[in-house]
Amino acid sequence: MYLWTALYIEDSLEEIRDRAITIGEQTGVKCPVNFLPLHVSLKISFKIDDSQKDKCLKLLRDYLSTVGPFSLEVQGYEHFPGVVWIRMKENERLVEIHSHLDDLISREFGVAPDALDLKFIYHCTLFFDEDSKLDRAMELISKVPLPGKVHARDFLIGASADGLPGTYSILSHSHLSPEVNVKEQWDQLKEST
Description:
Blueprint: E1 2-8, H1 14-27, E2 39-41, E3 46-47, H2 53-64, E4 70-80, E5 83-88, H3 92-109, H4 115-118, E6 123-128, H5 131-141, E7 149-152, E8 154-160, E9 169-175, H6 182-192
Antiparallel strand pairs: 1-2, 1-3, 1-8, 4-5, 4-7, 5-6, 8-9
């Protein structure tokens, strides 16, 4: 089983979501916002044994519930081979959360950070497909103005049997806690595990 964690940001980007779905239908590109809400992944999805699922979900919920709401700065649309996304500006809080998740999952489940985790890019995927199709989707979506910031008030945990794009479903959607000191909460969580 593959698990994944993310910040829910759809309430900040409803117009983008609606336009992405329309563009997906017009161009035939794969559009993950048809089956998942708009989100910013917090690390690369990771594989664990099915027998560890409940323990891992609890650990992820316990940690993510210590994170308070915050804003992310939007950098803009980007098109890379196979994907079009909205890049978020890296900030200290995102890096801290990502590092804590990598450490926690590695320590508790023996899952080493993926190579992509080492230079993680915080983003919100809009389309994935062959580049010939994505060129047109990028051209159309780039005409839709982006806000300067989005707000993370909730977190998501999802799962997939095989880890392939398009196969994830949401297992948990919870509110981030009131503003807290993430470092203090992390130190306390580390001591208790």
